[in-house]
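Sample intake sheet
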Amino acid sequence: MNKKRMAIFLILILSTMFIFIACGDENESNDGEDKEVSNDQVESDGEKVEGGQMVFRVGEDSRVIHPLYGNDRTTLTLVNHIFAPLYNLKGEDIDYWLAESIEPSEDYLSYDLKLKEGLTWHDGEALDADDLIFTFNTIMDKKQGSHLRDSFVTSKGEVKIEKIDELNVKFILPEVQIGFLDTIGGIRMFPEHVYGGIENIQTSDVNNNPVGSGAFKFKERKAGETLTLSKFDEFFKGSPHLDEVVYRIIPEAASAEIALQNGEIDAMSISADKVEKFEESANILAFDEDRLDYLIINQNGGKLGDKKVRQAIAYAIDREELLKADYLSTDYAKPAYSFFADKTMYKTDDVEKYEYDVEKAKELMKESGVNNLSLTLAYGGDDNVRELLVQQYLEEIGINVELKAMDMSSFFQALFEEDHQDEYDLAFNGYIYGKEPSTYAQVFKTDSMNNVSGYKNEEVDKLWDEAAKEKDATKREELYKEIQEKIMKDAPMYPIDYGYVIVAVDPKFQGLEEAEPAPIHMFNDLSQIYMVE
């Protein structure tokens, strides 16, 4: 390692940055148990009390508070607690929330879903099948621009929905989709009486006061400062213990740590190097978030159309160095070689791993005939140490990299809006899509909204379609292995690691395990958390 890279590496150890684009189901590890690194509990002798306020730190303000829009951590967190899911998949089990049951037909071409009786929205209006049908039809309306739409479109057409009665609906598929239970589980209902008739929901002012059915309802927003939720007493699982949950916006990690020490905030994600600092004063929860961190190698800008150039970039990067820089050791992360998250069914490491090899990278650049290549590496926020490190990696193989700082809103716009996707060539990102492999198709299928790298391969598109409807588990596994092999050879992205999330919580808050530590939003069910005095 040269001196310049060593300096950047040492800086990088002191910081960490997490960016997400999607959230899937509640996952379990391959052996059926979560891989907890630690769960150090600071004892509290207080008695349980009802009420109180819990303050979480978030790094940025939210975007559009609606289930169909916004793919940043803050917005996804708010959506999770304001808009209840139909159900969560937990391995072979279904954890029902708004839904009471879901049953596939014998031929798997239709699914009957029943909602629980007596459900209401935050404004007191009844929640019923008409709302679910409205939600689904909004997802399928191209003009509304939902990222979920692609999940309900197969090679033979679109999924349809049919009302049976006030609590029951039927989903009708044009062809078998083995992972369809997972797909339906991704729906978060929103009320027709609030959102109906709006030409463009994403830009509507109605999102400034969202109405859902989750444990907490939206109370107020102080732009750039706080987002406050209040408990929903009619929540179907029972009234939450806490009166309010506040998300305080503190962009700088150092400032957030001081706020945690001073009691100004009660919970936040921390980096691995801060565990020792807080383990005596806070409860530390560390768990596998089943997230993949990766580098986008973007073909939309026109500079990275040559596969050999993309492969050269991958070989020039030192994965182990990046991993240790972010997480200090493999105690909090492990290297990734596939684009599947670690717990995803049929994930294989038997792919092109792109182990660090500068000479091979130089040879590939020579074979490509591409010279004097200049690329733009975009990043959001102020933390650019990983980007600096990659800049040094690629300089060694003759590629000039310009770092492009962007505010977070512009960064996500560049990633996901078609008119802006040629504004960068490289960018760090991450995603959580869950255990079902078919959900990853949206990242790589031609013209998919979440295909941020501009990847196109008609053969792979067909393999995705074939795998999604294959009933034989052995054949399905073979297809997904072939998909992984082909995509990794094409190098539209560079997998880095599967990281753990570490959360520090003030000991006066209990019920943390019952609240279910979860990807992105820290806890799945905040109604279970209570204070002790």
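Comment: The CA atoms of residues 216 and 519 lie 19 Å apart. Residues 473-490 form the longest helix (18 residues).
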